[in-house]
Amino acid sequence: MKILAINSSPRTAKKSKTTLMLDHLVKGMKMAGAEVDVVSLKEKKIKACIGCERCQILAICTHKDDMTNELLPKWLASDLVLYASPIYFRFFNSLMKKFIDRTYPAFKLFFQKDDEIFMQARYNLPSIAVLAVSSLPQEAEFEALSMYINHMFGKDLVVAEIYRHSAFLFKPPYGKKITDILNATIQAGKELVESRKVFPDTITQITQQIDNKANIIECIRMMHEISKQKTLSKNLSLTKILPEKKWEMLLTHISLIASEATGIISNQRYETTQDFNFDQGFVDMGMDYSQCLKFHESLEKSLNCQFPFTILFKYPTVKQLSIYLAKEVFKDVDGFEKIQGLIPHKNNSSITIEKDVEQLSEMEAEDTLLNELEHLDSVSFP
Ligand SMILES: Cc1cc2nc3c(=O)[nH]c(=O)nc-3n(C[C@H](O)[C@H](O)[C@H](O)COP(=O)(O)O)c2cc1C
Known about the structure:
Order of helices and strands: EHEHHEHEEEHEHHHHHHHHH
CATH class of the largest domain: Alpha Beta
CATH topology of the largest domain: Rossmann fold
Bound molecules: flavin mononucleotide
Shape: elongated
Helix content: 40-55%
Distance between the termini: 33 Å
Structural class: alpha/beta
Radius of gyration: 28 Å
Strand order of the largest sheet: 2-1-3-6-7
Number of strands: 7
């Protein structure tokens, strides 16, 4: 079976949830033996239809671009065309609509007896399957699109509609639910090729609700595992310095970065550690949320390590953060004995965060997850 998969997401493959779902669908199609050509519309030159209607007479478009030269012929030669689009204002996005408008040369208008106007195909048209992905967590996002698809192309041509909501949750590392959904999407690809439809059970799997909080907790736990593994091997480049000196340097370094993030030291330089109060909280220093983000980023960069953003709230002073970094990130306890009394709970951080998240409202938990995910954008996953 020859399949043309058209992806209208303008976002990069790394970010696009439509692409993520499409990749899985295509994987299933190929596993079932289909020949699949995936086209990313953002990479093609396609002009908008200008409504000249010349194609209604000549069956050829006025424009000469990738649509005329490449895509319309491919579209007509396919057995199945898959329209994969993000939901924009409860419909296909404009890139996809532009593509559909430009298939006009394949149709001609014709009048029925009762004066109702229909589009009639000039050729045998490919079957149509739709994949649409929305951010909002409800199926209502797809109602208008589904109505349009069925009304426009009719039951004979439309073989499958796959609609996935809550796509903002689809970021690695994937919890069990999202893995199940992606696997069901592979299954849908196979079914489309083998049976020319997607079975209701598979659709139910793909469209299942995700318990946001359970997913968040699972993601955070997985992220902590990954981030722990990633950071264990990193070493503070201060290892050759005397333990006491090293400790002082770490404290000073964090203080400086914190001060820089809050703008305190834009005009002055601190010469000695006496100038800092290592027990002062970051918030007490006047650090707001965006400054916390900057602080976190600068620390990771300057110390060549990675640690979750939320650690700043768990260890909110220079001293506490230094202890955390020394013990958990650099795995170096030399020289820290003298301040051991300050070491906070020996809790596994992910477990504590899970508990914290459980106490939050769903929206607050989502915010926590999104913060964690931001942090993880810089981490590559296996
Ligand atoms: C202009 C615009 C309009 C959008 N409209 C909706 C909408 O009506 N409903 C919804 O759930 N999401 C809406 N979204 C969110 C996208 O559907 C969502 O981010 C989707 O994952 C984007 O797909 P992509 O990641 O493949 O680009 C909109 C996004 C944009 C940029």
